[in-house]
Design brief:
The structure is a single chain. Helices cover about 20% and strands about 25% of the residues. A hairpin with a 3-residue loop joins strand 19 and strand 20. The chain folds into three domains: about 40 residues, no CATH class; about 325 residues, Rossmann fold, CATH 3.40.50; about 130 residues, Lipoxygenase-1 (Sandwich), CATH 2.60.60.20. The protein is built from eleven helices and 27 strands. By secondary structure, it is α+β, with helices and mostly antiparallel strands. It is elongated and about 85 Å long.
Length: about 525
């Protein structure tokens, strides 16, 4: 249960100036010179989602710094993947990259810095209990410079992040002001266009990006990597990252059953594997949304495997930009059942997770949810296939059967066998049933499908007259990560066995191949 209101008020007075309940204790506004002011009003309070608000540390304590990383003219070699559908981005052999400390108050040094206003600018913002030297910060900086000739600015707010979570949440607001000040100063001193800015915030850094985006007009893009839920979920947009903080906001959710935000808060929101616990990540017993039952410092400082997966996937997209094609869908279940697989012409129902997300044609729509499956090991991408069964219902067939269904897809590249998820699966004769499966190898265009069936139901065990066979009309196999749409259609295959239907006896298998006589649907 949550703390009593009196206990919260007492805690508030101990911690400092806070907003508690429907009243504001202390000043409602604090100003920080040319950085601007912060306000604590009703939008920043909720009885259980945000019962406590602290004021940030002094700017001198947070000591935010901005490091510029650029690359000189590179020599490069171009490599490509041997897989036909995924091509590696060209890889540059970087010379020693330039690193410069940016001082927003020193306009002359900004003008003389190697920051080139004609090039796109990427801004990296770390999270709680992290700093400039956190390994992923260096890795992402290098990967971005490999991918493109960018200005890369790293925001280091270690003095504000290396504290307990409640205070770091408050400090994030001031860091947002400081980042805003830098970006506006760069606009005025070197004519840096705001539309060329791309802020990349990990976890708590995602909300910092939102604070800056709210104050920088016409900001180009924000990428939020697993933004946290605690003190942000279901609160007003001013409190958290939201879709209006930039012209394009893409959010990757990989920990919504831990402490990651679940609500859609971007122009597009990607939910790999439903956005929940990621493949290869065990459940963390400390991931608990009840802020008063856990040690917040220990919870939030622990590097969650699922939370980090958002960062891993974005990093992978820099070396394999076509690896993660997400499909717009209502929820994870419809996606898993193969109901959301059409990208449309033009491509307005699919988008690449990661660096290429901005290519998605949102067409004045907002808060779109895109789903995708990934694997449990680096580089995490899989080849996604929609396997769609049209089941027949001949005389003598049971209305429903349940069991294990295994398919072998033989393509023009390789052959892969997979057991369809959900065993034992419940199948209704005379109705369709589909799955989206992620394969480690690219099968290519399918030339043969072998179906193995093992009845595992309970209703037929003591009934000799019960029919345990499965009856298949046709199977359609579609590689759903092809773009454009016509390529997906060209590589779709419809396979069948007999003219009417094909019986698969329990414990047996059948071979189905593409035929001109295969019919899309028949009961």
């Amino acid at each position: 249960m949550y703390l009593h209101a009196i206990e919260i008020s007492t805690l508030a007075l101990i911690l400092g100036v806070t907003a508690v309940g429907s009243q504001v204790i202390g000043s409602e506004e604090r100003c920080y010179g040319e950085l601007g002011c912060l306000v604590l009003d009703g939008q920043w309070w909720h009885p259980w989602r945000r019962p406590i608000n602290l004021w940030p540390y002094d700017p001198a304590v947070i000591n935010t710094t901005f490091t510029l990383h650029t690359r000189p003219a590179p020599s490069f070699t171009c490599t490509s993947s041997s897989r036909p559908r995924y091509h590696q981005h060209q890889q540059y052999q970087l010379k020693k990259r330039e690193v410069v400390l940016l001082h927003p108050e020193d306009h002359l040094s900004l003008a003389l810095s190697p920051l080139d206003a004609t090039k796109p600018t990427k801004v990296i913002i770390h999270s709680y209990h992290e700093n400039l030297n956190t390994p992923w910060v260096e890795e992402l900086t290098e990967a971005l410079l490999q991918y493109g000739d960018y200005n890369v600015i790293v925001v280091n707010w270690a003095g504000g992040s290396s504290t307990y979570y409640l205070q770091a949440v408050a400090n994030a607001r001031l860091v947002g002001l400081e980042l805003t000040h830098l970006l506006l100063t760069l606009q005025h001193t070197i004519n840096l266009p705001p539309h060329s800015l791309h802020l990349i915030g990990y976890a708590l850094g995602a909300h910092i990006a939102g604070y800056a985006g709210e104050r920088v007009a016409e900001l180009g893009r924000i990428t939020g990597l697993s933004p946290p839920a605690l003190f942000f979920e279901e609160l007003p947009p001013v409190v958290r990252l939201d879709e209006r903080d930039a012209a394009f906001v893409d959010v990757i959710h990989t920990n919504i059953n831990g402490h990651g935000i679940s609500q859609r808060c971007g122009t597009v929101d990607f939910y790999p594997n439903g956005g929940e616990e990621q493949p290869g990540c065990g459940r963390h017993t400390t991931e608990n949304r009840d802020m008063f039952r856990v040690d917040l410092t220990n919870v939030m400082s622990q590097q969650s495997c699922s939370r980090m997966r958002a960062l891993d996937l974005f990093l992978t997209s820099l070396t394999c930009p076509a690896c993660f094609l997400g499909h717009e869908c209502t929820d994870k279940y419809l996606y898993a059942y193969g109901m959301c697989y059409v990208c449309g012409e033009p491509n307005n129902h699919c988008g690449y997770l990661g660096i290429r997300a901005q290519e998605f044609l949102v067409q004045r729509r907002e808060r779109l949810a895109l789903y995708i499956f990934t694997s449990d090991t680096h580089p995490y991408h899989v080849y996604s296939y929609r396997v769609w069964f049209n089941l027949a219902h001949p005389v003598g067939a049971e209305d429903s059967v349940e069991g294990q269904l295994t398919v072998t897809l033989k393509g023009d590249n390789t052959t892969v066998t997979t057991t369809l998820p959900g065993t034992p699966v419940w199948l209704n004769h005379g109705q369709p049933r589909g799955w989206v499966v992620g394969l480690e190898e690219d099968v290519g265009a399918v030339v043969e499908v072998v179906v193995a069936w093992e009845y595992q139901g309970s209703s037929c065990r003591n009934n000799e007259e019960c029919n345990t066979s499965l009856y298949i009309q046709t199977i359609k196999v579609t590689p759903i990560d092809y773009l454009p749409e016509r390529d997906r259609e060209a590589n779709t295959r419809l396979v069948c066995g007999g003219i009417d239907n094909t019986e698969v006896i329990s414990g047996g298998s059948v071979r189905l191949i593409p035929k001109d006589t295969c019919q899309e649907w028949s009961v």
